[in-house]
Amino acid sequence: MASNNSLPIAVFPRKISTSAAVDLYDPLVERKFPDASKYNLVVLSGGMADVSYSLPWVLDVLEYVRMVARDFPATKILGICWGHNAVSRALGGQATIEDIHLTEAGKQFFPFAATSGSTFILLAENHECFVNETNNVPTFQAHPKLSNDMAKKMLLGGTTETSTEQLEKEFEKLDKPTDGVKLLERIIQWLKE
């Protein structure tokens, strides 16, 4: 079971179908990583830890990402939120916090990001989304898995340093429609490419 500060690494065995299996790994507590040769996708999801810290388990995740990208090009890597920043750091970039503005390549990849490493194509301005040149490692700083209601609950349960005015501004953003479902549909399409 994952702890509150860890993130699961989800891996998908080498098949893409409605019955595809998902295996979860916890790099913080279990400290083991899947054999990338047995999977067609490794997903690094969100987490509570700061990817810029050089904690031993974070460094292990970064090394795992480098190894998968280098040694198993047929295994795709998807970084979401914390995973976006981890992939960026592992492959030569750095984490930043910015607004998202899609580039032309981003508009093509997402028809409706951390600073990238040198082998990445920026899909959004301010380095919020990118994909590598071989199209097997996209990452984005987003939370398509969260509903607006869940995000509101997380904001309410967050830090006491957030002012009422700041919360109201964030809630206004969350009342707007999102492209989370479209983004996930595009990722499923990408898996088949």
Automatic annotation (TrEMBL):
The keyword Thylakoid does not apply. Keywords: Glutamine amidotransferase. It comes from the Eukaryota. It holds the Pfam family GATase. Residues 27-143 form the Glutamine amidotransferase domain. The keyword Ribosomal protein does not apply. One of its GO terms (cellular component) is nucleus. This is Copper/iron-regulated glutamine amidotransferase. It comes from Penicillium argentinense. The lineage of its organism: Eukaryota, Fungi, Dikarya, Ascomycota, Pezizomycotina.
